Amino acid sequence: MELKSRPRRRDFITISSGESFSPFHYSVGRFGSQFLTELRDHKRFMGMRCAGCGRVYVPPRPVCGPCFKKMDDWVEVGPNGTLIAFTILRFAFIDPETGQKKPVPYGYGFIRLDGADTQLQHFLPVGAKPPKIGMKVRPVFEEIRHGNLRDIRHFEEIA
C-alpha cells in the first residue's frame, strides 16, 4: 500500500500528558502523524521501507539507521506479529500517559509485526496462560480511537 499524500500542517497529531498538567504539547511529526492516523482511521499498521537495504521500520522514521538514506516508501505491515521479548509488571503505579492507576499484573512486550524489521512496544494481557517468546499475537483495538498508541488496547495471543 503506497501513501502519496502528505498530511497538512493542521493534520499533525499532538500528544499530551493525559490528565496531569504539562505546559506543552509536542508534534509526532509527519511520519508519526501518518502512522497514528492510519491506526485510528483504518486499524492499519504502516511502516517505512528503506530503498537502500530494504529494512522496514515500524513505527516509521525518515532516515534509515544503517544506510542513512532518506526514506519515503510507505508499506503496510501486520497486523499480526511475533512476541520478541516481554516483562510482567506486578506493582501498581500511575500511568504517566493517562494519569490513572494501571491495573496489575500486566505484560509489556516487544512485538515484531509481520513484514517489519523493528519491534513495536505494547501491552499484553496476563491471564492463566503467561506470554511466551515467539508466540504469534494480534492487536485488539479500542472501539473509539483518538490517534495514539493507546488506540490499541493490547496484543493478544492468536489461538
Roughly what is the average pLDDT, rounded to an integer?
86
Number of helices: 1
User: What is the beta-strand fraction?
Assistant: 25-35%
Give the strand tally: 10
Largest β-sheet summary: 5 strands, antiparallel
Structural class: mainly beta
Kindly report how far apart the N and C termini lie: 28 Å
Oligomeric description of these chains: single chain
Strand arrangement within the widest β-sheet reads 8-7-6-9-10
Instruction: Enumerate the spans where pLDDT stays under 50 for 5 or more consecutive residues.
Output: none
Backbone shape: globular
Cα-atom radius of gyration = 16 Å
Q: How helical, in percent, are the residues?
A: under 10%
Number of domains: 1
Secondary-structure element pattern, one letter each: EEHEEEEEEEE
Structure description:
The chain contains 1 helix and 10 strands, in the order ββαββββββββ. By secondary structure, the protein is mostly beta strands. The protein has one domain. The strands form 3 sheets. It has a 5-stranded antiparallel beta sheet, with no helix packed on it. The longest helix is centred in the N-terminal third of the chain and has 14 residues. The protein is globular, with a radius of gyration of 16 Å. The mean pLDDT is 86.
